[in-house]
Inverse folding.
């Protein structure tokens, strides 16, 4: 053997840079299921099962393709607890200290590989449209890193939805059309689901045994675990759901957890699908006239815009990004995030679906659980750990900028030029949650007032020093200043009562 080729659980792509650089005839692929990766945060059992089953299927495909694969199962008695431990063990067995790897998507592992007593070459992960170096060049010298401008560069670079160098339809962004609330529709298609095969069943038993105490329901498990099935899920989304993606992107319904979302992020993030292939498929539907431009553009923007932008921020900002806390928030994460009692229907719905599906869509993450954590002043590190643990698509390079940056503005406003906060009004407009809530979204003060209505103002006033200077926040502060004094006092007293209930670990 000349070298080991490391393939991590979120690198399950046949054209991974490490595999491309390796020699099938002489090198050995190392894949390892290790306890440390399953437990550095208490990952949702569905997420662990997705990764382990997809790894086992991928190893089979590599073997069928002629690779030698040294695969460590979690229950192997000789297995060590960490990736580096496994590389050392395999290196000894095969008489080599040389490792080819594709750079991991988190600083924790990048540093572990750098510090390993082995010769590891970490190759760039080229499964992205924009490299960290290219992102840095774009960011250099800019006062603000606005996603919208980065996105336009990516449109030009990829040529998606471009006509003669100009954006298709004449506009870069059709978000303005994408703010419609949704209605229950029993005919609406659902994301494609897959029955577990024998390999997955074996993994499910293992996960039940080892991680049964983590938050989240393991069964029923219906994720795709192979590239072929992930492709099927993509085709199904493109033909059955994409057309409504734009219109209902921000909508939330208690009876419909997925609406027109694709639920492709878990597959994309572990390497079963590629961003260019997804966008190619989406653009194809649009060109054939089967989906409207606002849907295709909205979708492409999420993938080549937001997703690539987030990765650029993560690598640009460095390892301590996840510990930033610009607003000095330090309240403990309330038990309701782990399924504890709450009277807030929107939070209960988002958490319950997170527990069952390891999935919530963007607006639930941003405007329900994220919004509440920010308004209530929860420690952003704890919020980050929660998101990293509970979602099947959560890998640090994409989770952290979304949580620390976009949702909690703990990075001081690099990602979000103004905080994504709202009163209950927004949730009432975009969802059907409020109708069956113990609180009244119409009440601005008093016992029954929706906690979002109280905490919204309290948050803005607590942080007036920081946000009051932002011209885009001016009108909001003027509204507060015009409110009569009694009402302002009642709002602040109501907010204080909610916060003290949180501090006393009582249900809100
Ligand atoms: P769709 O709505 O169908 O969107 C299409 C695709 O666009 C997604 O699959 C995803 O790859 C991409 N995308 C959309 N928005 C974003 C975004 N803001 N950042 C990056 N990619 C995006 N996404 C993750 O992949 N992993 C995470 O851990 C994660 N954590 C988040 C935490 C918070 C607080 C917030 C507000 C957002 C987070 N997101 C995360 C972004 C987004 O919510 C998910 O990508 C999306 O909900 C995945 O579901 P979907 O595939 O059905 O997405
Ligand atoms: Fe959520 Fe407030 Fe609506 Fe209840 S009333 S569902 S807490 S927004």
């Amino acid at each position: 053997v000349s070298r080991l080729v490391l393939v991590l659980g979120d690198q399950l792509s046949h054209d991974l840079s490490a595999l491309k650089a390796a020699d099938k005839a002489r090198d050995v692929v190392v894949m390892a299921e290790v306890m440390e990766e399953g437990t550095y945060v208490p990952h949702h059992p569905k997420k662990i099962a997705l990764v382990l089953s997809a790894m086992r299927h991928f190893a089979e495909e590599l073997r069928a393709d002629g690779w030698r694969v040294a695969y460590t199962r979690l229950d192997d008695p000789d297995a060590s607890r960490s990736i580096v431990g496994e590389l050392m063990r395999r290196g000894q067995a095969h008489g080599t200290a040389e490792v080819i790897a594709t750079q991991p998507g988190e600083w924790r592992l990048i540093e572990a590989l750098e510090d390993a007593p082995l010769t590891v070459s970490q190759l760039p992960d080229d499964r992205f449209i924009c490299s960290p170096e290219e992102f840095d060049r774009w960011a250099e010298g800019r006062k603000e890193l606005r996603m919208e401008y980065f996105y336009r560069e990516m449109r030009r670079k990829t040529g998606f939805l471009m006509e003669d160098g100009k954006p298709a339809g004449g506009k870069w962004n059709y978000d303005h059309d994408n703010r419609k609330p949704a209605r229950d529709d029993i005919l609406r298609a659902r994301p494609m689901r897959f029955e577990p095969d024998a390999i997955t069943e074996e993994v499910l038993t293992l996960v039940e045994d080892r991680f049964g105490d983590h938050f989240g329901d393991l069964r029923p498990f219906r994720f795709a675990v192979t590239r072929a099935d992930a492709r099927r899920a993509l085709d199904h989304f493109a033909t059955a759901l994409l057309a409504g993606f734009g219109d209902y992107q921000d909508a939330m319904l208690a009876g419909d957890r997925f609406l027109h979302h694709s639920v492709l992020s878990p597959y994309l993030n572990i390497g079963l699908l590629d961003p260019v292939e997804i966008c190619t498929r989406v653009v194809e539907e649009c060109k054939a006239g089967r989906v409207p431009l606002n849907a295709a553009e909205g979708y492409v923007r999420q993938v080549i815009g937001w997703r690539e932008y987030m990765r650029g921020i993560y690598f640009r900002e460095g390892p301590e990004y996840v510990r930033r806390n610009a607003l000095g928030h330090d309240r403990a994460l309330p038990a309701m995030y782990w399924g504890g009692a709450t009277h807030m229907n929107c939070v209960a719905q988002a958490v319950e679906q997170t527990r069952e599906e390891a999935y919530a869509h963007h607006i639930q993450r941003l405007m329900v659980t994220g919004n509440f954590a920010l308004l209530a002043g929860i420690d952003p590190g704890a919020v980050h750990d929660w998101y990293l643990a509970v979602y099947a698509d959560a890998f640090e390079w994409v989770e952290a900028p979304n949580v620390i940056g976009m949702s909690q503005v703990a990075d001081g406003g690099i990602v979000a030029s103004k905080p994504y906060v709202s009163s209950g009004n927004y949730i009432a407009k975009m969802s059907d949650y409020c109708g069956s809530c113990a609180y009244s979204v119409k009440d601005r003060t008093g016992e029954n007032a929706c906690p979002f209505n109280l905490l919204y103002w309290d948050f803005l006033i607590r942080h007036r020093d920081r946000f009051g200077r932002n011209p885009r926040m001016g009108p909001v502060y003027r509204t507060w200043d015009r409110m009569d004094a009694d009402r302002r006092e009642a709002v602040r007293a109501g907010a204080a009562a909610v916060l003290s209930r949180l501090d006393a670990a009582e249900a809100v």
The radius of gyration is 23 Å. The chain has a mean pLDDT of 97. Residues 293-317 form the longest helix (25 residues). The beta strands are 4-6, 28-32, 68-72, 98-102, 119-123, 162-163, 166-167.
